[in-house]
Amino acid sequence: MSATTRRSLLAGAAGLTGAALATSIVIAQTASAAGTGAGWLNVKDTPYGALGDDRTDDAPAIQKAIDAAGQGDTVYLPPGAYRLASPLRLRLGVTLRGDWHPRSPVRTDMTASYLRPGIGTFTGEALIVVDPAPARGTSTDSAYGGGPRLYGLALDGRDQRATTGTAIDGIRVTPGVQDLGLDKVTVWRFTGHGLNAQNATAFQLTQVHAVDNEGHGFTWGDATGTGGGLVDADLFQCHAQGNKGHGYDILNPDAVTMVDCRSESNAHHGYRITGVNHSMVLIGCTTDRNGRDGFHLATSPGGRFLQLLGCLAGRDGRETATSLIPYSGFTVTGEAAEGVVLTGCSTSTGRDDESGDHSPAYGLTTSALNSVSNVSVVGGEYLGTTAPFQDLGAVVVRHSGVISGTHRDTGIEWDQHDVHMISGAAGTRRDLEFWSRGKARRWALRTTDAAESGAGDGSDFALVRHADDGTVLDTPLTVSRASGRVSLTTPGLTVTASAGPGVHLVQHRPAAHGYAVTGAGKTSRAFQSRATGDSVDRFAMEINGTQTFGPGGGTGRDTSWGRLGAAQIGSADADIVVGLAGKGIKVKEGSNAKMGTVTLTGTTPVTVPTTAVTAASRIFLTVQSPAGTPSGVAYVASRTPGTSFTVKGMAGDRSTVAWLIMEPA
């Protein structure tokens, strides 16, 4: 639109004619000159003269308009096909504005309006180059006059290379550029990167699409891992698709936020973040069908934190079928990754549209991290065709709400475990603490700092009790990792059984000790029992083996049973009572026993050998089977203590007589 036409439209809309129109034009021109110089510059107007006919080299005309524009001015490109034989260069705060940018250039084939390099006639490193603003002598003035903007532009690379054979980037941002904005810009089919920037500060990208480029879709870094990085940047609803490198290649991010961005069908990683990560947040970013990892986070020492919220990785790792490397939805690796947090993120498996293979192999992979690093996973769903997690770095801390599963040929095999992992290497104390709101810690589940050798020792488990001020009181419960032995401290263990048995000990090792009590002294107690309502124990077992009994209630125990002396057991204060009819006392017979039988031979003494007989023994004789000429009389004729005794009867008596030895108490 020419300046004359624009004035006519404005005048008609305002109802101005004659002198009023002239006055309005003067006022408008004065305001424009005082504010932004030329204001709005149409590249097809005189004196610029761009044609947009897809034949003429429009680079000189457009560049002339850019050079004529002042701070805050807009260089406008009406719909057209602008062929360029050299790059357009911006450095001042000028807006280069078009009217169209397709999200899917493949479907539209960029038919409406675009800028493109000349076929076989382009000389330069990029279609658009952004240079730093001229400095005014101090570093704080380095952005003075800067802040260029690109809006509503469609850049079609046409798979062209420069006349020298080198690759062409869509947009090249040279080091030192600050305050660059890209809004609604599409970069398609360039032989280099879609957007290539080094040492960039204060970037603002909104709905920028990098599609089918031979390099990365977006890159703030280089192949050697040097060359600056990205600082103070915001990316919103950007899209990287079908690029032969990474979708997003970001080096040394510092104060970077990405929101609702997408990376799809790129040959390498969807998002590749490397170098020293000072601070970066990704919110609601997604991937699909990238050749390698969906999110590849490889950070270097000296960084701080990297946080992902609500990010989704789907069907990444398409190279898995032809590569020895199984890829993941999320991979955290590098020399150090301190404070990586995944909150509400998920990985979904699916069949690739082209190969038909399912991917990714893992939902989350970690490796090569230092011992103090951790990857915190809060909520979300993680799926993989091999396993949901491949924690090679042993640094994953899983919190409640994490769902995971493995994609099998028959369907998804869900992990039914809710796993909680505490950060910290072996040999360090790790606590899971429970606090009162607004107060202090009350309890802690602890793995102790005992060193581990790999033989099952170290890192005992403990339940720690804290006082109201948070100081440690004691450890009521500990479990030895080496032996599995459970230790309880005062006040011990109370078992309230709703059904029997209240405590059931099952021994799996022969000759093992199922229950053992070690007392601090001879007066310690091993066991006691009482019924509800009792104030005195009904039964107690002391460490010395004595057992005492009582009626319960408030009455003391009155009966004891235990060791009375060497080789003696009995009760010092109670009779032995057989209280059930039909029950009695059984004594084992045999060599050196205290009970047996003997056959009489009349008046001839019969010797009974037994070491059980003593000088004070009471020997009881009773006839069991009468024989011969039974008289019913049998008596002890003699005894040799510790050796034997003899028995006699009357003449002709051949009866079988039972004998029983008893000792006086």
UniProtKB/TrEMBL annotation:
Gene3D superfamilies: Single-stranded right-handed beta-helix, Pectin lyase-like (2.160.20.10). Residues 40-189 form the Rhamnogalacturonase A/B/Epimerase-like pectate lyase domain. It holds the Pfam family K1-lyase_C. It comes from the Bacteria. Residues 592-662 form the K1 capsule-specific polysaccharide lyase C-terminal domain. This is Uncharacterized protein.
